[in-house]
Design a protein that fits this description.
250 residues; alpha+beta; 25% strand; globular
Length: 250
């Protein structure tokens, strides 16, 4: 017989598990390659251990960088132009589409997946906890996304599908139907890596300038779509928000 009758019971179990087992860290600002290597090393090490520890890390990017989803084409992004502007490009272990990691705070969550718990349960509860943390920054309209984007249709478009922030998944954190936190997952040997970008400002909307094979009109249309579909903490709270503010709250 299942230990859980409802999703609410799963939520309670996971809340208690996070409270008991989570280990927190803030590694500050590092290169994209360093950040992605740190996450992947921790995933593989935990997968090959018997530890029940849960690792939650926040970090930043120096220099700013575009990360590509695990299965995204390298040719989507103009790496040479990025380099000319002093930015990096790196590939993530997780899926999804490109993210321009600029004025943001990034988080990663690495944990073994408990029996009868799915990655969707962890996604839901981790975002509940992220929302609670962000709400410490002040009064706001942050909420959960209730519906799910049709990703198979979205990815048919070579322009609309380039950016992770062009669409929203269920239980992502939103501000007036605009995405504030974009997250992705990867499972290895029953161990989960989940990481995501929490937008502090709107600098991520510069991503279309580094997309290959687009006209000026397409570039501006893509940027406007990003602005319309995403929101930042500075916009949410109507005031200056820093990396340290977010890190402390989370």
């Amino acid at each position: 017989m299942s230990a859980f009758v409802s999703s609410e019971e799963k939520d309670i179990f996971l809340h208690q598990l996070f409270t008991k087992c989570v280990k927190l860290s803030d590694t500050g600002f590092n290169t994209g390659a360093w950040n992605m290597q740190y996450d992947s090393d921790l995933l593989y090490q935990l997968a090959d251990s018997s530890s029940d520890d849960i690792y939650f890390r926040v970090y930043g990017w120096s220099p700013w960088a575009i990360s590509l989803g695990a299965n995204q084409k390298d040719t989507d992004i103009d790496a040479e132009l990025l380099s000319q502007h002093g930015y990096d490009v790196v590939r993530r272990l997780t899926g999804g589409r490109a993210v321009f990691h600029a004025n943001e705070i990034t988080y990663s969550l690495v944990m073994r997946i408990p029996q009868e718990i799915t990655i969707h349960d962890i996604y839901r509860v981790s975002h509940q906890l992220l929302l609670l943390g962000l709400q410490k920054l002040g009064n706001n309209n942050l909420s959960f996304q209730k519906s799910q984007t049709n990703f198979s249709e979205l990815y048919k478009s070579t322009t609309d599908s380039v950016s992770c922030f062009a669409s929203s998944a269920r239980y992502e954190i939103m501000n007036n139907n605009r995405k504030v936190v974009g997250s992705a997952q990867r499972v290895y040997k029953n161990t989960l890596l989940q990481h995501g970008s929490i937008l502090i400002g709107q600098e991520h909307s510069s991503l279309p300038f580094y997309v290959k094979n687009k006209t000026t009109e397409q570039m501006h249309n893509m940027q406007q779509m990003l602005i319309n579909s995403s929101s930042s903490l500075q916009e949410v709270f109507g005031s200056w928000v820093t990396y340290q503010d977010c890190g402390n709250a989370l």
